TrEMBL record:
One of its GO terms (molecular function) is oxidoreductase activity. It holds the Pfam family adh_short_C2. It comes from the Bacteria. SMART domains: PKS_KR. This is SDR family oxidoreductase. Keywords: Oxidoreductase. Signal peptide: none annotated. Residues 7-185 form the Ketoreductase domain. Belongs to the short-chain dehydrogenases/reductases (SDR) family.
Amino acid sequence: MPQLDGARVLIVGAGSGIGTAVAHATAEAGAHVIATSRRSETANHVAARIGRGAEAIRLDLSDETTIAEAAQRLGRVDHIVSVAADHANGPLSTLERRAINEAFTAKVVGPILLTKHFVPTMPTDGSIVLFSGYASVRPAPTLTVMATANGAVDALVPALATEVAPIRVVGISPGVVDSGSWDDTSDKETFFDNIRASNPARRVGTPDDIAAAVVFALTSRFLTATTLRIDGGQPVA
Ligand SMILES: NC(=O)c1ccc[n+]([C@@H]2O[C@H](COP(=O)([O-])OP(=O)(O)OC[C@H]3O[C@@H](n4cnc5c(N)ncnc54)[C@H](OP(=O)(O)O)[C@@H]3O)[C@@H](O)[C@H]2O)c1
């Protein structure tokens, strides 16, 4: 029997990279997928590509009204996966308060509000998967905001898991993944070569690697209050 047979899975940020891979992997595992984006067209496009009755809904984690409306419209949702990230990378001298706030909204404040609005109608065997990232344990110049936002996710996961128990809350912390979000990096191939040379897996991750870990998290009923590092064993120092 498919692992997620008939479960209603809301995927926040399904329109690109890892989120799209998660949408396809959960659908293949039998889930009824509800794909979100801040743009209706993007959500509709992803849902159409998935087929199998997948739904689309516009949802912006910086606008609590869209979260509350989605919760009311969708009714019971069994599992939530939020892959959303807004990037405020760069030297400190270039950082603007608005971008810093948006980064924390996508990763921390928004997921807290998602939990607030959806948990009341979630079943007790439901789960929530949030996305951290390697920057929280591997600080680097220009990644201060991402490191701190991911560190907040690492702390948020056990806090939420305690508060909404027995609903499970699991964090996923990817290493470097060729998700499309590195495509504008001028020295992407050199950077990827360095990752391949330095991690024990000797490869850069794929969105499907991370999606497989999400399906594992959604279906592992003794797994909660922790963050899984899916990073090819990338050295922390
Ligand atoms: N790729 C990597 O190497 C890597 C490494 C470590 C951690 N991660 C983490 O893994 C996750 C996915 O990575 P990715 O590379 O696939 O990211 P991505 O392509 O940048 O996708 C991020 C998604 O976040 C959504 N989003 C941004 N702000 C939002 C908001 N306010 N409300 C709702 N959705 C919002 C965007 O959706 P719309 O624009 O369609 O609304 C977009 O689809 C992220 O959390 C990222 O930090 C990735």
